[in-house]
Amino acid sequence: MKTIAVIDDDVYIGDMLAEVLTKEGYKVLRAYSGTEALMLLSQNKPDLVLLDLMLPGLSGEEVLPHIKNIPVIIVSAKTDINNKVNLLLEGASDYITKPFEINELLARIVVQLRKASPTDTAVVSSGDISLDTTSLEVRVKETPVKLTKTEYAILKLLIQNENKVLSKNSILDRISLDTPDCTESSLKIHVSNLRKKLRDVSGKDYIEAVWGIGFKLNI
Fold first, then answer.
1. Cβ(46)–Cβ(29) under 8 Å?
2. What does the domain layout of the chain look like in residue ranges?
3. Predicted structure pTM score
4. Could you say which architecture CATH assigns to the domain 123-217?
5. b (16+ CB within 10 A) / e for 53-74
6. Which residue from 23, 62, 143, 186 puts its CA 20 to 30 A from 70's CA?
7. What is the DSSP letter of 214?
8. Where are the beta strands (DSSP E) in 84-213?
9. Sign of CA pseudo-dihedral 16, 14, 29, 107
10. What percent of the chain is modeled with pLDDT above 70?
11. In angstroms, rounded to a whole number, what is the distance separating the alpha carbons of residues 140 and 78?
12. Overall average pLDDT of the 132-152 stretch
């Protein structure tokens, strides 16, 4: 599970972000001031930081240089282009202006986490399912299963998040670079086809639809 630190003194925005990120499957850490942020970061190493600039105590600009080897997305009401450029040059990974669309922020988070992730190992496996990221070959109980590009991307994501519910939007965001043709309306069809192919080989239904939320892999 990826961890995201939300550093923002606005309780409403912070609570909203914490709720949305938790539903998306992230662990959330909170800090409400620059000083508290430094203390938090000295005791934890999140996978990504959402950093407001107008913080009590130390400002976001003063906190940024202390964040090393962690992607930082600035989330601020400041719109001055020079300020944005300077912060990006000083180490911020991205900058989004308040007010923002939550789906856009979630997509930016996915992109930054993907960039920061280590190179995939050659074989990803879970239970009876193995997926070779070099040959793109999928096997269930050592039996080859032929998948489409979209089905492959969905299965790989589900294996990497075994037994965790992934929302439909989260799946679409995370496979968008590999399968831009997959839409919200077609995702259900792709998952249904993938589930059938896996079940035909094993007799087991590996993919569970969680009503109103998304899907998860059960091994």
1. yes
2. 3-116, 123-217
3. 0.56
4. Orthogonal Bundle (1.10)
5. bebeebebbebbeebeebbbbb
6. 23
7. E
8. 94-97, 123-126, 129-132, 138-140, 143-145, 166-167, 207-210
9. positive
10. 97
11. 52
12. 89
Report how far Cα 122 is from the mean position of its chain's Cα atoms: 21
Which one, of 108, 125, 80, lies nearest residue 21 by Cα?
108
Placement of tokens 């990504």 in the chain:
48
Q: Compute the C-alpha angle 103/108/109, nearest 5°.
A: 95
Q: Residues 64, 173, 195, 207: what is their CA dihedral angle, to the nearest 10 degrees?
A: 40
Domain 123-217 in the same topology as domain 3-116: no
Residues 6+ apart with CB under 8 A from 176: 107, 182
Q: Render pLDDT for 56-105 as a digit per residue (tens, 0 to 9).
A: 989 999 999 999 889 999 999 888 888 888 888 888 999 999 989 999 99
Contacts 24+ apart (CB under 8 A), 45-48: 45/70, 46/3, 46/4, 46/5, 46/70, 47/2, 47/3, 47/4, 47/71, 47/113, 47/116, 48/2, 48/3, 48/4, 48/5, 48/72, 48/73, 48/109, 48/112, 48/113, 48/116
Domain 3-116 has CATH 3.40.50.2300: yes
